[in-house]
Amino acid sequence: MNLTTRHMAVFGQRLNPLNTQVESLVNEDTYDYHQEVANAGFGDMLHDKERNQKYFIVIKKTVASMRAEGREVHVLDIGTGTGILSMMALHAGADTVTACEAFIPMANCAEKILKANNFGGRVKLIKKRSTDIRIGEDMERKANLLVTEILDTELIGEGALAIYNHAHANLLTEDALCIPCKAMCYAQVVQSSLAAQWNSLKLLVNLDGDVLLKPSPDVLNCSGEPSVHDIQMSQLPLDQIKPLTDPIEIFEFDFKCKEPIDVQRFRNILVKAFIPGSTDLVFFWWDIKMDFKEEVLLSCAPFWAHPNFKEVKAKSSPRLPLTNVVPWRDHWMQAIYYIPRPLKLTPSDNEFILNCNHDEFSWWFNVFPNVSNNFEKQTKRHACLCRFHITYSRSRIGQINQAQRNKRYLRFLENNIHKDSNVLVLGHGCILGLACCSLGASKVWCHEPHKFSRHFMDSLVQCNKLNNINLVESLKDLETEVLNSLTHVIAEPYFLTSILPWDNFYFGYLLTKISDKLNRLVKISPFAASIYAVPVEFLDLHKIKAPVRECEGFDLSLFDKMVEVSMSISQVKVEAHPLWEYPCRALADPVELLKVEFRRFDINKHHQGEIIVKEPGLCNGVCLWVDWFLDKSGDSKSVVSSGPVASIIPGEFIKWDMFTRQGVHFINNNQAIKGSILEWSVVFKAKSAQLNFNFIIKHK
């Protein structure tokens, strides 16, 4: 008798950002499982060759050393993932290996991978958290070698301290060794007006330099959010950062120590800046000493501070930019922490106290003047009280401050806004809309349905004494008479619900709700928007989706199959990424896929075409973005792009806007040769607010 597995249908919901409506979905009951697997993020770790090689080298070295001393080797692998470290330990000659994995889909996959590599009966796999394991119940004996990878960009953000403390107290012998063995954290104090734009609000000035809007005192005096800003730091333009200090060793974590690691510490360090400047922020990273002899080092430093930079540069391809010479990883990045109130250092007053703090999961930093009573000063983890920093993303805050972008909007406003203008602003936190008042508009209505965004905008209204502004929670609050009196409807556009660039087409959806009440002469800006695409060769970003196949000689194809199936069921075709952090070469000229005019937003569109690949290379992705046309003129100065900031030249690296995220469609296993064709299609259904893309590489 044949039995067919049947899955029940389950109801779910999702927010459609194009119309902000919550839509009902019917999925198989395994949908959540597949979504978890597809988004687990194990893939790029397994593509990290330096990490994998050094783990294997140190495991073999440690097991051999223990064997030479006449000791048995009993391994505990916490957070085994695919089981890769367990297989390394057995290959190196461990007597027993116990592995634990709390993420059940991954634990089930590890079970199959171990069996496929002929280790199935030799690893005891426990499908629970290590902190729930009991000796005598789950483990026969305590382990004397711990191999684990439970670190993140902040080192401690995944709960590593509690896990190590519990393991030493309950699961490991007194003489147990640990891989990795020790970690050192570094901080470098930096001045950067570019990076500071992600955390502050600047003056908004007109084309002549006159102040149109100033930040409110509650924003200026706010300490901001202490949360980590993880970033591919090597990609920051060097001419936009000014280090005031060398990297400073701030805290060491000894993972092999039987004494509990302190989960909360602070340290005040007297620092002398080698040049004057403003202590805007702290660059943070860590390195780990893998073995108990502390001979094998793995560093997460950016390229300019990497201890092995010269060595890895000599071994790297001459085609690689310097910024990509050091090993790439997206699971362990670098971090920026913003100083609540920066100090201004001068040549004669260049010493200060760097205050470093961590708790069980996170970090925060501060700076104090070099005064004796500050050396014992502690600071609590600060928090945003003005609501500006917690309402908007880092990229949005930077976008608000982006001078070149604002200049284009202000050019349009200065040419169009006059004393008789009645303006409706659609968007969230659109301070350019408030600038209409300063430019002389008669009345301005700002649609601000989000409570915190409305609070921020109201603080600017009060601070700048703007008397002709109305903050509207709902478009339904606008009477027909008001809508009919409008001379302009404007937007940047930006909405808090947007993730991909075209999610801001919500502007068009809002227009359709009021269009029948607008007079026919009303000016709408942006007038139109276009979605563009270009096939590219990523140096590294594609690894987060690429098949692993094998790692250090171990077959991980079952992991690939599991992820592939889950991605086909649950993954969207286009993801949002800040592409300035991920270098890619253009393989062709960009092509316009879709153009919408917002006065005619209710028209369905279906387009298809081909992009001819002009450059040889591995076409592992398609990048997409939106250009906003502020008016009908066609003047390049009236176009605001969320994509490249310079013309795209096939064969060369693309320079991307640093304050937006672009769309990426990943393509696996396609070696595009010169003359290959990328077939594309796009379908836009206005009424249901659906926008779908499809891409296929075809060879000659």
UniProtKB/TrEMBL annotation:
The keyword rRNA processing does not apply. Keywords: Methyltransferase, Repeat, S-adenosyl-L-methionine, Transferase. It comes from Glossina austeni (Savannah tsetse fly). The keyword Iron does not apply. Belongs to the class I-like SAM-binding methyltransferase superfamily. Protein arginine N-methyltransferase family. PRMT7 subfamily. This is Protein arginine N-methyltransferase. It comes from the Eukaryota. Gene3D superfamilies: Hnrnp arginine n-methyltransferase1, Vaccinia Virus protein VP39. GO terms for biological process: methylation. GO terms for molecular function: histone methyltransferase activity; protein-arginine N-methyltransferase activity. Pfam families: PrmA (PF06325), PRMT_C (PF22528). SUPFAM superfamilies: S-adenosyl-L-methionine-dependent methyltransferases.
